[in-house]
Automatic annotation (TrEMBL):
PROSITE patterns: HTH_LYSR. It comes from Paenibacillus peoriae. Residues 58-88 form a coiled coil. One of its GO terms (molecular function) is DNA binding. This is DNA-binding transcriptional LysR family regulator. Keywords: Coiled coil, DNA-binding, Transcription, Transcription regulation. SUPFAM superfamilies: Periplasmic binding protein-like II, Winged helix' DNA-binding domain. Residues 1-59 form the HTH lysR-type domain. Belongs to the LysR transcriptional regulatory family. InterPro entries: LysR_HTH_N, LysR_subst-bd, WH-like_DNA-bd_sf, WH_DNA-bd_sf.
Length: 290
């Protein structure tokens, strides 16, 4: 199997566009098309459906081949990195998935530490919500991911313990209260998705508190803006809130809702040397007491 063809296949599957793939690979579009056809001929399967309306679409076998191709690429990277490590020189790339608050709060210092030790390793960061990152880890789009609990079946290193709080504007009727009851104020709550929902819904279910979804937003910035406009009481994690500039009042909530933030991978033991070293750098800075 031609590894160059494998590289072309993965890039086309990533971009779902021949022109964009050719630009990313720094080769001509006809060369991309030729390599893809040769790769399909070698495997004797169709990897893409070429649709005039929808463009390129992966076939079912193409999806399975893409997952295997990424695993092969990981193995190739691991071989190169092991050889470099043996020569006391670590090279290669670490592909990381992270949600925005983790990128803001955890990654800058970790990247600085890692780069000081391994300047020849490239870091590629993809941002999304926890569910997206888990899927990226699952299909090996990224090698490691920083997500909020639950961590499902993945290997995990806990970095931070986190809890949810309520936020409200100044002069709110509950400003003098020490804690905000979710049950008593359930019609006035604004929830933020992107990793918080599992912890919130699980706790509400356990406490038999009816969930009233009056307003749900996707980002912390939007939540803060909605609360500033006095549209309700925001429910957000302390960790995420710390990544957003605001002047809102912060209150503890009843019942308390907690979650963990950690690094996940299929297997840390089987990760590339560069990925293992990056995990080690994160652990040195943020490892939480279990």
């Amino acid at each position: 199997m031609n590894m160059n063809h494998l590289e072309v296949f993965m890039k086309v599957a990533e971009k779902m566009n021949m022109t964009e793939a050719s630009k990313a690979l720094f080769i001509s579009q006809p060369a991309v098309s030729k390599a893809l056809i040769q790769f399909e001929n070698t495997l004797q399967v169709k990897l893409f459906i070429r649709d005039k309306q929808n463009g390129l679409v992966l076939t079912e076998v193409g999806k399975e081949m893409l997952s295997l191709a990424r695993q092969m690429k990981e193995i190739e990277d691991k071989m190169v990195q092991l050889a470099c490590q043996e020569n006391k020189l670590l090279r290669g790339k670490v592909k990381i998935g992270s949600f925005p608050a983790a990128s803001t709060n955890l990654l800058p210092e970790a990247i600085c530490l890692f780069r000081s030790q391994y300047p020849d390793v490239t870091i590629e960061l993809m941002e999304g919500n926890t569910n997206q990152i888990k899927q990226w880890v699952e299909d090996r789009t990224v090698e490691i991911g920083i997500v909020a609990s639950p961590f499902d079946h993945y290997d995990v290193h806990i970095l931070e313990h986190d809890s949810m709080v309520a936020i409200m504007p100044e002069n709110h009727p509950l400003q003098a209260e020490h804690e905000v009851s979710l049950e008593q104020n359930r019609n006035d709550l604004i929830f933020c998705k992107g990793g918080h929902e599992s912890a919130v819904l699980n706790t509400l279910h356990e406490q038999q508190i009816p969930f009233q979804e009056s307003l749900t937003v996707q980002t912390a910035e939007t939540l803060v803006h909605m609360v500033q406009k006095k549209l309700g009481i925001g429910i957000i994690s302390k960790f995420t809130l710390s990544s957003v500039s605001h002047t809102l009042i912060v209150k503890e909530i009843i019942p308390q809702i907690s979650r963990d933030i950690g690094i996940i991978a299929h297997s840390f033991d089987e990760a590339t040397p560069a990925a293992r070293e990056f995990v080690k750098a994160l652990g040195q800075l943020y490892r939480s007491s279990e």
